[in-house]
Specification:
- The chain has two domains: 201 residues, Rossmann fold (3-Layer(aba) Sandwich); 105 residues, Orthogonal Bundle (DNA polymerase, domain 1).
- Helices cover 40% and strands 14% of the residues.
- The protein is built from 13 helices and seven strands.
- Helix 11 packs parallel to helix 12.
- The N and C termini lie far apart (46 Å).
- InterPro entries: RsmH, SAM-dep_MeTrfase_MraW_recog, SAM-dependent_MTases_sf.
- It comes from Anaerotignum propionicum DSM 1682.
């Protein structure tokens, strides 16, 4: 695999670099390395500092190592999920960090690589695993979840109003034979969504595919887990920058950041805090940072991107 085959365009690149406030001797983590676009700009600013590059996609590691070949002496590459950031840092003997970047969701490369099964626009085996060493895939989900489980996933993670109907049609279809490809699943979804509802808005399979991908990779649970863990490891003034691409992710980040800034769980009528929960961060972005017109012209996928930033504080 060559770097040219990994068509990943780094979203909100310079906004992330600016908000990380990189120190030449600092310790930084790119928790979703992808093709290494963000990592490269971080590495360029380091002298005696360290960069930890994490990704669960082995293809990403091959591409990023090529892109980052001039900076390998500053970098630790880790094949893992960013949700395990606590144990990753422990394994490297790192107590505190000066910044971390997370670019949540599926990468351009994963969408463009048809055989990975992420895209509803290309026919491929049902897969959607970001970490291909895991056994649980979209095929397993579609062919083994019962109707209630399918409805839960598609409604909660896809915010799809026709979730129950889609679940019912999937159950009916797989009674004849397993649903094996993305193309077969798209056809089932098209049958389930009434014709009138397919006239306007996004592709009828978009929300369902998003939902399946989130469930297969445990994306939202991992995101919540990672924010809590990173907040505990940030040096004062260190920054956590998170880019999200849909409302579910952005809501989790917004609420998690707010809790890090104001963790008190005491009843509102208490005159002073009695729970003893300490503030772990300060929210830098009251409103998310979004892409400018120039970036949107170059990369339409950046249209839904939102960047939020949390800063570590003294305890």
């Amino acid at each position: 695999m060559t770097i040219l085959e990994f068509h990943h365009v780094s979203v909100l690149l310079w906004e992330c670099i600016e908000n990380l406030k990189i120190k030449p001797d600092g310790v930084y983590v790119d928790g979703t390395m992808g093709g290494g676009g963000h990592s490269l700009e971080i590495a360029k600013k380091l002298t005696t500092g360290r960069l930890i590059c994490i990704d669960q996609d082995l293809n990403a590691h091959k591409a990023a190592k090529e892109r980052l070949k001039d900076h390998l002496d500053k970098i630790n590459f880790v094949h893992n999920n960013f949700g395990n950031i606590g144990s990753i840092l422990d394994g490297l003997g790192i107590e505190k960090i000066d910044g971390m970047l997370l670019d949540i969701g599926v990468s351009s490369h994963q969408l463009d690589e048809a055989e990975r099964g992420f895209s509803y626009q290309q026919d491929a085996p049902l897969d959607m695993r970001m970490d291909t060493t895991n056994s649980f895939s979209a095929y397993t989900l579609i062919n083994e979840y019962n109707e209630d489980e399918l409805n839960r996933v598609i409604f909660n993670y896809g915010e799809e109003r026709w979730a129950r109907r889609i679940a019912q049609f999937i159950i009916q279809e797989r009674q004849n034979k397993p649903i094996e490809t993305t193309g077969e699943l798209v056809e089932v979804i098209k049958k389930a969504v009434p014709k009138g509802a397919r006239k306007d808005g996004p592709h009828p399979a978009k929300r369902t595919f998003q939902a399946i991908r989130i469930e297969v990779n445990g994306e939202l649970d991992v995101l919540q887990q990672a924010i809590d863990a990173v907040a505990n490891r940030l040096n004062p003034g260190g920054r956590l920058c998170i880019i999200t691409f849909h409302s579910l992710e952005d809501r989790i980040v917004k609420e998690a950041f707010r809790k890090q800034e104001n963790p008190c769980i005491c009843p509102p009528q208490f005159p002073i805090c009695m729970c003893g929960k300490k503030r772990m961060g300060k929210v830098i972005t009251r409103k998310p940072i979004v892409s400018g017109e120039e970036e949107l012209e170059m990369n339409p996928r950046a249209r839904s991107a939102k960047l939020r930033v949390l800063e570590g504080v003294e305890n």
